[in-house]
Every structure is written in C-alpha cells, then in structure tokens.
C-alpha cells in the first residue's frame, strides 16, 4: 500500500504525532508538544466551561489545536523528506472533549449530565473539514462515553490486554479500563495534570532541561535532566519520584505535610523554606532562581492519586474482579520518563501485588493509533473494540467518594 500515514495522540496537556510508511508499518519520525488550548484551562472541565459559555472560545480552541496538529504534521514530513501530499491517511485519538473541540462540535452534552459525546463510534472527516491543506482522510477514534474517549480505545488497541487486565492512562483525565470477559469496564477520574507536570509550580513537559530524575542519597539531592541541560523545570515522573524520596527520608509526612526545617534533623532541613506563605522543598538553586516542590504541589499529587485509586476501586467492584484477581496492570501516560510501579505503591495507588504484574508502556495511545493504521482493515477492528466498552460514571458514586477520601493520604512508610 503506497504512501504514508500520520498517527496523532491528542492529549489535554501534551500532543504526540508520528509519520509511518503505510507499506511496512514502520515509524519514520515522531514529534510532540504542548496542547496550546491550555491557556483556556489546564484540564478538560475548564475548557468545556469556556466553550459552553463562549462560542468565540470554542472557535479559538478549535483553531489553536488544528493549527498545532498541522504544524506537527508538516514538521514530520519535512524531517523525513516526505511531501505532505504523499500522506494518504491521518488517524487521531483523544478524549471526548479534545475530539469535540477539534471538530468544532458543541460540548454542552459533555459539560452537563448525562455527560455523553455526540457520537460514540469512529468519525471520518476530510482534511478540508479541519481547514488543513491536502486531501488525506482523517479518522477519529471511537468515544465510548463522555470522559472515556479515543485515547483509551487506542491504548487498549495497541496493548492488547488479556483477561482481568487493569489498564491505566494516568494523564489529566485519569482514564482506566478493566477487562472482564467480553466486556471492558471503563471510567475516568479527574486527576488533573499533576502527573504530567501540568499544574505544578515548576512543572513542564519532557523537553530539554526538564528534570527527569531526582534521588536523595544521604543528605544530597541528585538530579538528571533531559539532554543534560541546565534544569528549568520538573516533569511528572520526577515529581512522583521526589515525593517517594521525601517520604522515605522523613521530610514529608504520610498526611502530605512538609515538615519544617526545624523538624528535620539532617541537612535536608535547609532545603525546606517558606515561599509565598507556604512550605516548599528546594529541588535546585542557581543564578536564575529556585525550582521548588511546594506544599500546594504535593496536595495536587495527593488529589490526583486519590482519584486514580478510587476509580480503580469502583472498576474492581463493578467488574467483580478484586485486585488480587488481576492478572496484569498496564500503565501509560505522558510523564516524561519511565514511571516505576514501586513509586505508585509508595504513594498509595498500587498495592504490593500490582507492582509484580505491572508494565509501563510509553506512548500508549500513539502506539495504538499506529497499530490501527498498520492493520489496513479500514479501522473495523477499532470499531469492534470500541463497542465492548461499558462506561461507569464516578460522579455521585458513594464508593468513589468514600475511597477518594480514604486514599488521599500517603501510606505509612
């Protein structure tokens, strides 16, 4: 099959795209960036509210994302010396809000109960309908529910989980799915962008200069950055790693409170300062200023992890598969580096059994889109997978609310 194809993961916080050879299914190049809609809010709820209350905001968000995706596409073609006209198919996976905004569709049904998308199957549009040049047809992945979308379908399509598999995309929407026979139970827990670095005081995507690892060895803090550049911010995986390190050395309490400098007997106490009325841990200090993990940042991570764990509990109850009955746990997300399952146990998302059966898959949704493009079945198998989903709403679910409060704290070290 001649020509080339584009795979795109349309995330709330980050974007990823790759160019493929249609004949071989080989990835030729990959790129990514930040979602430019973030100026309308860091999460889906904020953007939906903006779009509901202002047609101008909806139109601007559509323009922003269309322009940025086309820029990524042209960059990939230029890097690979492939004429844009040789791209014969584009496939995009995103959560329902992102896909609706891309298409300039009304979002009222997503913003208010019963929180349903305007369509649940895959959607086919032309490049012209997205105001792109070229003639490539564009396929958008199915959206089984209001907050379970194409990115989740793509993740599972690429991962091919077996029976009793828990699949977690720990991005802004916190989508998750649990396989039980022919049914895939799925939900979305509003985790916010903390795991992607999106709403942390010095958070950033995995770009040059992002801190990707933080270790505390004795009384020394050792960091590593992407590209070995001077540190300019911290990505989500490093923030989670730092929280585990602070818990282990007693700087951070299980309830989430940073101890004061006076309460810490080691020299690490000198790294806890007061900044704008709240405690903060100094990650790095140079002539340009301070990089901090603040008390507010820690609370954001607690909220995110509490929501994820509570959503997992609801799926286990609804599917009839308790956590000891899980056979595999598959993780993905735009963290910036590998996310170690042991860290998730330390902060209280996983239990010991899950650590042993966990596997991290970077670029989960993008890999699924690529696999669908390589299948050459006109996305029929994607549609079949989408029809297996049963979406469980968490809003107003007593078990979710109970478990959310129960799992807000970190486990005792």
From TrEMBL:
Transmembrane segments: none annotated. Residues 164-412 form the RACo C-terminal domain. It holds the Pfam family Raco_middle. InterPro entries: Corrinoid_activation_enz, Raco-like_middle, Raco-like_middle_sf, RACo_C. Residues 4-157 form the RACo-like middle region domain. Signal peptide: none annotated. PANTHER family: IRON-SULFUR CLUSTER PROTEIN (PTHR42895:SF2), IRON-SULFUR CLUSTER-BINDING PROTEIN-RELATED (PTHR42895). This is DUF4445 domain-containing protein. The lineage of its organism: Bacteria, Pseudomonadati, Thermodesulfobacteriota, Desulfuromonadia, Geobacterales.
């Amino acid at each position: 099959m001649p020509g080339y194809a584009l795979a795109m993961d349309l995330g709330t916080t980050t974007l990823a795209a790759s160019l493929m050879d249609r004949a071989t299914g080989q990835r030729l190049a990959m790129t990514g960036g930040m979602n430019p809609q973030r100026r309308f809010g860091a999460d889906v709820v904020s953007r939906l509210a903006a779009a509901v209350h202002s047609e101008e905001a909806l139109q601007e968000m559509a323009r922003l994302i269309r322009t940025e995706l086309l820029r990524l596409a042209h960059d990939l073609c230029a890097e690979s010396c492939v004429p844009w006209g040789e791209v014969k198919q584009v496939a995009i996976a995103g959560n329902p809000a992102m896909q609706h905004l891309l298409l300039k569709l009304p979002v009222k049904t997503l913003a208010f109960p019963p929180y349903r998308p305007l369509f649940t199957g895959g959607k086919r549009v032309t490049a012209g309908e997205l105001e792109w040049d070229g003639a490539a047809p564009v396929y958008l992945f199915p959206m089984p529910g209001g907050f379970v979308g194409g990115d989740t379908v793509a993740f599972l399509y690429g991962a091919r989980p077996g029976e009793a598999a828990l699949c977690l995309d720990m991005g802004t929407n916190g989508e998750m799915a649990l396989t039980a026979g022919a049914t895939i139970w799925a939900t979305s827990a509003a985790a916010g962008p903390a795991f992607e670095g999106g709403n942390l005081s010095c958070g950033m995507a995995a770009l040059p200069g992002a801190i990707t690892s933080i270790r505390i060895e004795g009384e020394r803090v050792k960091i590593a950055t992407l590209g070995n550049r001077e540190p300019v911010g911290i990505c989500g995986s490093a923030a989670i790693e730092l929280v585990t390190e602070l818990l282990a050395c007693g700087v951070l309490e299980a309830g989430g409170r940073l101890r004061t400098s006076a309460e810490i007997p080691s020299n690490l106490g000198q790294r806890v300062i007061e900044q704008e009325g709240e405690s903060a841990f100094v990650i790095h200090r140079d002539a340009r200023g301070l990089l901090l993990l603040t008390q507010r940042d820690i609370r954001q991570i607690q909220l995110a992890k509490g929501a994820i764990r509570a959503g997992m509990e609801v799926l286990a109850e609804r599917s009839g598969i308790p956590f000891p009955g899980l056979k595999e746990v598959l993780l993905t997300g735009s963290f910036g580096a590998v996310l170690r399952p042991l860290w998730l146990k330390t902060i209280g998302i996983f239990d010991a059994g899950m650590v042993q059966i966990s596997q991290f898959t970077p670029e989960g949704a993008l890999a699924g889109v690529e696999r669908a493009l390589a299948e050459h079945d006109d996305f029929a198998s994607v549609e079949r997978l989408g029809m297996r989903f049963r979406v469980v709403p968490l809003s107003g679910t007593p078990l979710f609310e109970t478990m959310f409060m129960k799992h807000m704290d970190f486990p005792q070290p």
